[in-house]
Design brief:
The complex is a heterodimer of chains A (about 525) and B (about 300).
Chain A lengths: L1 H17 L10 H5 L14 E6 L16 H7 L7 H4 E6 L5 E6 L13 H12 L6 H4 L5 E8 L2 E6 L4 H9 L28 E7 L3 E6 L8 E6 L3 H9 L5 E2 L4 H7 L3 H6 E6 L2 E8 L9 H9 L3 H7 L30 H10 L12 E2 L2 E2 L1 E7 L3 H16 L3 E7 L1 H9 L5 E8 L7 H4 L16 H12 L3 H18 L3 E2 L5 E6 L2 E2 L14 E2 L2
Parallel strand pairs in A: 1-8, 1-9, 14-15
Antiparallel strand pairs in A: 2-3, 3-5, 4-5, 6-7, 7-8, 9-18, 10-18, 11-16, 11-17, 12-13, 19-20
Helix pairs in contact in A: 11-13, 17-18
Chain B lengths: L1 H28 L16 H10 L6 H12 L14 H36 L4 H14 L3 H13 L18 H27 L2 H8 L4 H29 L3 H6 L5 H10 L3 H29 L1 H8 L1
Helix pairs in contact in B: 1-12, 4-7, 4-9, 4-12, 5-7, 6-7, 7-9, 8-9, 9-12, 11-12, 12-13
The chains are: A alpha+beta (about 525), B mainly alpha (about 300).
Chain lengths: ~525, ~300
C-alpha cells in the first residue's frame, strides 16, 4: 500500500515537472473563436503533417456508392485527385445549356506517369453512367447526360438531354478524373479504390489498414514532403497524442473536446483552433404519412415544444447555431427574415387544441379522433447527441400531453427502417461539400416513395418551385426561388430544423497555410515551420 | 490416444457446422444490411440499393447463401468484405497477429503470475500480507478495464507524466499497456482459481501422507499438491484462450489496435456478413482446438484420465 502511495506521489511529481513553468495568462479572442491569425513569413519546404482522422475510410474513390462519404472526399479530392475545374484550360457551355465543351490543359500527368487526355475523362464519366455499377449516388447529378465525345486528346464534348443547373457544376467541380487504364476490370475490386492514382499535388504512398494512409509530395506544387492521415477512434487517446505533439492537425473535434481545450494552458500555447462553417444541417422529422403528423399545425406545435435554447447550451455547448434553412447558411438561398419558431409550450398547447388534440379521457395524454398522441422516436444507438437531446425534448412533450418514447437501434437497422419509412419520428443531418445544392431529392413529393424524402413531405407549390430551380441557370433568380422554398418548407415544418455544427479542428502552431473552406483545406498550401 | 484424438477431430465437423449455421442465421436475422449504411444521396434509390444487394447475392434465400458460403470456405475462400471489398482472409491475416501478440502475452503473464501468487495465498492464508494481497486482488477485480486503460494511458503514455509508451499502436513498446489491461482480469481470476484448488489439494490425504514420509514442504507443495490443483486451472486456460483471441473491443479501441475485437465489432455493426463469418470461423476453430488441447493436457496432468480414455 505504501509503495502504491509512493508511486502516486512519483507520478504526480513527474507530472508537475513536465507541466511546470509560468502559466500563460489565457487564450486570446482569435483562439477562442477559432479564427486563424494572418500568415507571416515564407513557406518552408519539407516536413510531415500528421492529421488525426477519427474514422478510417473504407475506400478511396468517391465514385463508388459504398465509399462515397465526406471524410474520404476531403482526404482525396484536392490532394490526390483533381477535378475538371483544375484540369481544364477552358470550358464553355452552349446557349441552350445542352452542350459543354472542355479543353484540357496540356502536359498534365497522372502519378503513374501517363499523360492525361480526353479518354481518361470519358472513361471516368462512363464508369459513373454505367447503370450496372454501384455509382448511382454520383450518377444522380448527371442523369441528364446523354453523350460524351472526344474529338481529340485535349477536347471533351458533353451533351445533355435537357438543361439542369447542377449537372455542369457537378461534372466540373466534383468528378475526380482517373486514368482510363485503372478503370478496367471488376469495378468493386479495382486496385485504384485503395491506391488512388490522380494528378494532384500529392501522390498516394501507402495504406496501412487500421493505422494510417500516407501521401508524398508529387511535385513542387506542395510544400509538405508527406501527409499522414492517422486513424484514432478514441477521442481522449487522440487528445493525449495531440498534446504529445503527434498530430499537426486534429479534425472533427467534438464540442466537448473543443470546450475542454479552453481550460488547457498547453493548448493556448501550442495550438490554434479552427472553426469554419460547413454545409451541414441537422433535423428531427415526423413521418407525415401518419395522420398524427400530417397537418402543419401539429408539426408547428411540436417545433414550439422543442427546447432549442436548453439544447444549444447543454448539448451543443453553444457551438451549433439554430437554423431554419435547408441551404448553405448565409448564402443568398436562405431568407434572413425567417426566424425560428420560439420555444413556447403555452402557444403550442393552443395550437394543438386548434388542431383537434384534446385530453377527453383525462389520462394526461392528448387524443384526436380516438387516437392517442403517442409515438416513438427512432434513434441510432451510436448517436451520442440524440441520447442527450431526446430526453430533454421528451420532457417538454410529456408536459404538453404527448406520450413520446425513444426506440434505440443500431445504425444499420436505423437506416434500413428509415428507408422503409418504418418509424414515427427520426433524426438525420444532410451534408454537402458544396455551396451549390439541389433540394429536389429531399422535399419533392416524387421522392417520397423511394427517394430521400423519408418523411413523406408533400406540397405542390414546393414541388413546382423545386422543378423550376432545376431548369434555372440564372444564379440570382434561382436563389430567389430557393428563398421561397426556404420560407415554405419552414412554414410547413417539413423538418424540425435543429442546428448547424461548424467544423471544429485544431492544429499545432507550427502548421501554417491552413485556409479552411467547404472543400476542407488546400493541403498544397500548408507548410510546417521549424 | 490416436483414436481419441481422431474421434475428437471428427466431432469438430458437426460442431463447427452448428456454430456457423447459428452465426449465419443470427447475422442475417439482424435488421439492416451492408447497403443500408451507404451515404444518403439522391441517386441511392430503393431500386439502386436492390440492384446492389442482388449483385452481392443477398437476394438469394438464406439457406442458399449459407450453402454458397460453405462451398467457398471448404476451398479456404472466405470471400470479400461487402464493405471495403477486400478479401476477408487478408483482413483476418492483419488482425490476428496483433490480437495474438497482445492476447498471448496477457495469457502468459496472467497465468504465469497466477500460479505462484495462488500458491502463495493458499500456503500463507493466515498471514497479513496474504490478506492484503487477497483484498488487493478483489479491488483489482472491480476495476473496469476501460478505466484502467485510460489511467495507464494518462500516466504512462500521456505527455504530462511518465510518457514512456506511445499513445496508439503496438510499435515502440506500445503493446505493454494493452497487455497489462488484458492481464489484469486474467491474473485476478486465475489467482483465485489456483488458490482455491491448492487449498483443496492441501487438505487431501496424499499430501498428509507425503508430509508424514518426511518429504520437504517445498516438494509437497510444488510437486504433489500443485500438480493436482492444475486441472481446473487448465480448464480455465482453455476457456480463456478464445476469449482473449476474440480481442477486447474496448482495449483495442482505446489503444488503437486494429485487432480481432475491433474487426468483429465493426463488421457486426456494418452487417459485413463475410467478415462476420470469417471472424466466427476463426473463433470457432480456436475454441474447438483449445478445448481439445485442454482435454489432452488432462491426460498428462492426471494419468488416471489417460488410463480411462485408453480403456
Amino acid at each position: 500500500m505504501i509503495r502504491l502511495a509512493s508511486l502516486a506521489v512519483v507520478l504526480a511529481l513527474s507530472g508537475c515537472q513536465r507541466c511546470g513553468g509560468a502559466a500563460p495568462k489565457g487564450p486570446d479572442a482569435a483562439w477562442l473563436e477559432g479564427r486563424l491569425t494572418p500568415e507571416t513569413g515564407a513557406p518552408r519546404e519539407g516536413g510531415t503533417l500528421v492529421v488525426r482522422v477519427p474514422i478510417e475510410p473504407v475506400g478511396l474513390t468517391r465514385l463508388h456508392d459504398r465509399f462515397n462519404e465526406g471524410t474520404m472526399v476531403r482526404l482525396t479530392v484536392g490532394p490526390i485527385y483533381e477535378t475538371l475545374t483544375r484540369l481544364a484550360q477552358t470550358w464553355s457551355e452552349s446557349d441552350d445549356h445542352l452542350t459543354l465543351t472542355i479543353t484540357l490543359r496540356e502536359g498534365v500527368k497522372f502519378h503513374d506517369g501517363h499523360v492525361l487526355d480526353s479518354h481518361d475523362v470519358k472513361a471516368t464519366i462512363d464508369v459513373v453512367m454505367n447503370e450496372q455499377l454501384p455509382t448511382a449516388g454520383f450518377r444522380a447529378s448527371l442523369e441528364t447526360l446523354s453523350s460524351v465525345e472526344t474529338p481529340d486528346p485535349r477536347t471533351v464534348i458533353v451533351r445533355w438531354s435537357k438543361p439542369y443547373f447542377l449537372a455542369t457544376h457537378t461534372l466540373l467541380a466534383a468528378l475526380p478524373v482517373m486514368p482510363a487504364s485503372a478503370l478496367v476490370g471488376d469495378f468493386d475490386t479495382l486496385p485504384i479504390h485503395r491506391a488512388p492514382i490522380g494528378t494532384g499535388p500529392f501522390r498516394f504512398e501507402k495504406w496501412d489498414p487500421g493505422t494510417s494512409i500516407s501521401l508524398v509530395r508529387a511535385d513542387d506544387r506542395a510544400h509538405l514532403e508527406r501527409v499522414v492521415y492517422r486513424f484514432v477512434k478514441d477521442d481522449p487517446a487522440a487528445m493525449q497524442a495531440f498534446e504529445k505533439g503527434e498530430f499537426g492537425l486534429m479534425t472533427r473535434l467534438t464540442p466537448s473536446a473543443w470546450r475542454a481545450l479552453e481550460s488547457q494552458p498547453w493548448a493556448w500555447q501550442r495550438t490554434q483552433r479552427i472553426a469554419f462553417p460547413e454545409n451541414t444541417w441537422a433535423w428531427l422529422g415526423f413521418n407525415q404519412r401518419k395522420a398524427m403528423f400530417a397537418d402543419v399545425a401539429t408539426r408547428r406545435a411540436l417545433a414550439m415544444l422543442y427546447p432549442a435554447d436548453t439544447i444549444e447550451k447543454t448539448v451543443d455547448l453553444g457551438l451549433e447555431p439554430r437554423t431554419t434553412c435547408p441551404y448553405y447558411p448565409g448564402s443568398k438561398s436562405c431568407d434572413p427574415t425567417v426566424t425560428p419558431l420560439p420555444f413556447d409550450p403555452s402557444a403550442a398547447k393552443r395550437l394543438l387544441a386548434e388542431a383537434g388534440w384534446t385530453d377527453a379521457d383525462h389520462d394526461g395524454v392528448l387524443e384526436r379522433e380516438g387516437v392517442k398522441f403517442s409515438f416513438a422516436f427512432l434513434a441510432a444507438a451510436q448517436s451520442v447527441k440524440m441520447t442527450k437531446l431526446l430526453p430533454l425534448f421528451l420532457d417538454t412533450l410529456k408536459a404538453a400531453g404527448i406520450d413520446a418514447r425513444i426506440e434505440t437501434v443500431d445504425v444499420s437497422a436505423y437506416l434500413s427502417r428509415v428507408r422503409a419509412h418504418d418509424f414515427d419520428a427520426m433524426a438525420l443531418s444532410w451534408s454537402s461539400a458544396d455551396e451549390v445544392q439541389d433540394n429536389f431529392a429531399n422535399f419533392h413529393s416524387s421522392q417520397a416513395e423511394s427517394g430521400n424524402n423519408f418523411l413523406g413531405y408533400r406540397n405542390p407549390e414546393v414541388d413546382r418551385l423545386l422543378e423550376q430551380i432545376r431548369d434555372d441557370f440564372d444564379a440570382e433568380h434561382r436563389a430567389s426561388l430557393e428563398r421561397e422554398v426556404h420560407r415554405r418548407v419552414y412554414a410547413d415544418q417539413a423538418y424540425l430544423f435543429m442546428g448547424r455544427r461548424p467544423a471544429l479542428d485544431a492544429a499545432a502552431r507550427s502548421v501554417h497555410g491552413l485556409k479552411p473552406s467547404l472543400g476542407w483545406y488546400d493541403l498544397s498550401a500548408v507548410w510546417i515551420a521549424n | 490416444m490416436r483414436r481419441y484424438v481422431l474421434r475428437r477431430l471428427l466431432l469438430m465437423v458437426p460442431t463447427f457446422l452448428g456454430i456457423t449455421v447459428l452465426t449465419f442465421a443470427v447475422a442475417q436475422l439482424a435488421p439492416g444490411d451492408p447497403f443500408s449504411l451507404e451515404t444518403e444521396s439522391a441517386g441511392l434509390t430503393a431500386d439502386a440499393l436492390a440492384r446492389q444487394r442482388a449483385n452481392a447475392g443477398l437476394d438469394a434465400p438464406i439457406p442458399l447463401q449459407f450453402a454458397r458460403w460453405v462451398s467457398r470456405v471448404v476451398r479456404f475462400d472466405f470471400g470479400r468484405s461487402l464493405i471495403d471489398q477486400r478479401p476477408v482472409l487478408e483482413k483476418l491475416g492483419e488482425a490476428m497477429p496483433r490480437t495474438a501478440l497482445v492476447a498471448g502475452l496477457a495469457l502468459l503473464l496472467g497465468f504465469g503470475l497466477a500460479v505462484p501468487l495462488g500458491v502463495f495465498l493458499a500456503t500463507n492464508a493466515r498471514r497479513r500480507w496474504a490478506r492484503v494481497l487477497e483484498a488487493t486482488l478483489l479491488i483489482a477485480w472491480s476495476v473496469p478495464s476501460f478505466w484502467l486503460a485510460v489511467l495507464l494511458l494518462m500516466f504512462f503514455a500521456g505527455p504530462r507524466y511518465l510518457d514512456w509508451f506511445p499513445v496508439q499502436g503496438l510499435a515502440d513498446g506500445g503493446f505493454v499497456l494493452p497487455v497489462i489491461c488484458l492481464t489484469w482480469p486474467t491474473l485476478v481470476i486465475a489467482t483465485r482459481q489456483v488458490r482455491s484448488a491448492m487449498e483443496e489439494a492441501l487438505r487431501q490425504d496424499y499430501v498428509k501422507a507425503a508430509r508424514a514420509r518426511g518429504i520437504p514442504e517445498r516438494r509437497v507443495i510444488w510437486n504433489h499438491a500443485l500438480r493436482n490443483s492444475l486441472l481446473p486451472v487448465v480448464t480455465m486456460l482453455g476457456l480463456h484462450l478464445p476469449f482473449l483471441v476474440g480481442g477486447s473491443v474496448v482495449i483495442e479501441r482505446i489503444f488503437g489496435i486494429p485487432g480481432m475485437g475491433l474487426l468483429a465489432f465493426d463488421s457486426i455493426g456494418t452487417r459485413d456478413y463475410p467478415t462476420v463469418m470469417g471472424v466466427a470461423t476463426v473463433m470457432a476453430v480456436v475454441t474447438m482446438f483449445s478445448m481439445l488441447l485442454v482435454d489432452l493436457a488432462y491426460g498428462f496432468i492426471d494419468p488416471r484420465i489417460r488410463v480411462e480414455r485408453a480403456g
